[in-house]
């Protein structure tokens, strides 16, 4: 990224000399002789940093600083000052200046200070670019609640758009916390049922008797405590969509009744004789392998095929790490606004930790992590120290550190040993990860005398 730096000083030799020095550091330089001219440059060009003298004819550096911090609060300003006006420079920092330099300017000090100021600016620009990308993705996809540009998520979203406006039953599979409910919302909102009810039932949270009553309703007096007729979720979802979340937790007796509704579109309330007809689009969600549950006798095969007309598998976050920056930016914006904080981005070390962590709790865990980091953040950006200990300690295991100066042989030995440890001694998996044959791996283990004690 090439940054634009504006130098404002009424002394031509100083502004041109500083400009030449910073050009050698790779910055694009703009020059102005006073505050008024400087403001005109900032209004026309995309300036990333301003270096300004304090005492100038016309508009002074103090006035320019006030105008810039008001109109362009994310653009850092470094003050140039003579020894006689250091007190004014300190006052300027209270008014929002990033730092100050005394004349004659030490060019090495200038280079370091500009680099430090622009590292903060880079966080701002990256966060801004991510927010813009999130908005563009939302516009392109017709829904903004699902964030992702990875190849695997693009396939998921393509499938969502393709099946949304059909009557097909859908099973959404994936680990806990991946966003299966958001996929349900997207399917419903893109369908021709979007103006009709979307009813959700979390099946695992209810006992067998309660679940039956929740799904199909009951008549007055059907059981102890049934003081009045109650309409069930199938009835409430008529002409709309019904989500059966954690479908794998439903027992066989309820499965039979759900199968009948899918086949005949009819049911009776608990304790009732009236047959009720419904038009409901069924979406199911589960973190279980239903085919394994069928083999164990826990899930009906005929119900599975009725529900599984279309299968949408939502990948875990560790398999779509390209989306971590986008998701983190969205959560950062949400929780900064919620907590009244002005946080401009996530510093590189913290972002690396987010990438390296395995996220067993998936997006739900990432969301909680960012909420915690925003609350703990004391500055303008999320740092490594703001992240929860579970993330910073857990991030160490996803990469192997090789110190400078280590021989190729020792580096290879460490990579093989650490990968074997990570895979709990599974040589086939280790060979696959390292991209070598199993025989080669055995030879290397013997050559380097690698021992793995599990």
List the helices and strands and how they pair.
Layout: E1 4-8, H1 12-24, E2 28-32, H2 35-44, E3 49-53, H3 61-71, E4 77-81, H4 86-94, E5 99-102, H5 107-141, H6 151-164, E6 170-173, H7 180-189, E7 198-202, H8 208-216, H9 233-236, E8 241-245, H10 252-264, E9 266-268, E10 275-277, E11 281-286, H11 290-295, H12 301-307, E12 310-313, H13 324-338, E13 345-346, H14 348-356, H15 362-376, E14 381-382, H16 389-394, H17 408-422, H18 427-434, H19 438-447
Parallel strand pairs: 1-2, 1-3, 3-4, 4-5, 6-11, 6-12, 7-8, 8-11, 13-14
Antiparallel strand pairs: 9-10
Description:
By secondary structure, the chain is of the alpha/beta class. It has 4 domains: 4-127, Rossmann fold; 151-313, Rossmann fold, CATH 3.40.50.300; 318-398, Helicase, Ruva Protein, domain 3 (Orthogonal Bundle); 408-447, Arc Repressor Mutant, subunit A (Orthogonal Bundle), CATH 1.10.10. Helix content is 48%, strand content 13%. The protein has helices at 12-24, 35-44, 61-71, 86-94, 107-141, 151-164, 180-189, 208-216, 233-236, 252-264, 290-295, 301-307, 324-338, 348-356, 362-376, 389-394, 408-422, 427-434, 438-447, and strands spanning 4-8, 28-32, 49-53, 77-81, 99-102, 170-173, 198-202, 241-245, 266-268, 275-277, 281-286, 310-313, 345-346, 381-382. Strands 2-1-3-4-5 form a 5-stranded parallel beta sheet, sandwiched between helices. Helix 5 packs across helix 13 (324-338), helix 13 (324-338) crosses helix 15 and helix 18 crosses helix 19. The longest helix is centred in the first third of the chain and has 35 residues, at 107-141. The chain is extended, with a radius of gyration of 31 Å. The two termini are 47 Å apart. 32% of the residues are buried. The model has no long low-confidence stretch (mean pLDDT 86).
């Amino acid at each position: 990224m090439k940054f634009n730096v504006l130098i404002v000083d009424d002394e031509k030799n100083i502004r041109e000399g500083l400009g030449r020095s910073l050009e050698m550091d790779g910055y694009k330089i703009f020059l102005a002789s006073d505050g008024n001219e400087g403001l005109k440059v900032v209004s026309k060009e995309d300036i990333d940093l301003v270096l300004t003298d304090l005492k100038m004819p016309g508009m002074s550096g103090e006035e320019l600083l006030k105008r810039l911090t008001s109109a362009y609060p994310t653009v850092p300003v470094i003050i140039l000052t003579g020894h006689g006006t250091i007190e004014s420079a300190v006052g300027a920092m209270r008014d929002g200046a990033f730092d100050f330099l005394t004349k004659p300017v030490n060019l090495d000090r200038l280079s370091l200070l500009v680099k430090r100021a622009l590292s903060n600016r880079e966080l701002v620009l990256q966060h801004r670019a991510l927010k813009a990308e999130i908005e563009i993705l939302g516009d392109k996809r017709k829904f903004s609640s699902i964030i992702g540009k990875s190849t695997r998520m693009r396939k998921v979203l393509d499938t969502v758009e393709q099946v949304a406006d059909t009557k097909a039953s859908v099973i959404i599979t994936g680990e806990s916390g991946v966003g299966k409910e958001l996929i349900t919302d997207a399917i419903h909102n893109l369908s021709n049922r979007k103006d009709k009810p979307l009813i959700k039932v979390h099946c695992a949270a209810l006992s067998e008797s309660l679940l039956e009553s929740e799904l199909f309703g009951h008549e007055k007096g059907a059981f102890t405590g049934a003081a009045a007729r109650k309409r069930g979720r199938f009835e409430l979802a008529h002409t709309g969509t019904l989500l059966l979340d954690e479908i794998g937790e439903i027992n066989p007796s309820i499965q039979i009744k759900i199968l009948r509704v899918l086949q005949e579109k009819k049911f009776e309330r608990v304790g009732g004789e009236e047959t009720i007809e419904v038009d409901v689009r069924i979406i199911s969600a589960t973190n279980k392998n239903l085919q394994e549950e069928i083999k164990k006798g826990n899930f009906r095969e005929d119900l599975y095929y009725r529900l599984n007309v279309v299968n949408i598998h939502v990948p875990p976050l560790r398999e779509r790490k390209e989306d971590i920056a986008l998701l983190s930016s969205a959560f950062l914006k949400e929780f900064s606004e919620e907590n009244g904080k002005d946080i401009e981005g996530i510093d590189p070390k913290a972002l690396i930790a987010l990438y390296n962590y395995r996220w067993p709790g998936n997006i739900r865990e990432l969301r909680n992590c960012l909420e915690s980091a925003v609350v703990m953040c004391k500055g303008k950006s999320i740092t490594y120290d703001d992240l929860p200990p579970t993330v910073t300690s857990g991030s160490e295991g996803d990469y192997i550190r090789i110190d400078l100066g280590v021989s190729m042989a020792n580096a290879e030995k460490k990579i093989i040993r650490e990968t074997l440890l990570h895979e709990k001694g599974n040589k086939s998996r280790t060979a696959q990860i390292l991209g070598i044959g199993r025989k080669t791996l055995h030879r290397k283990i013997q050559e380097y005398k690698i021992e793995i004690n599990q």
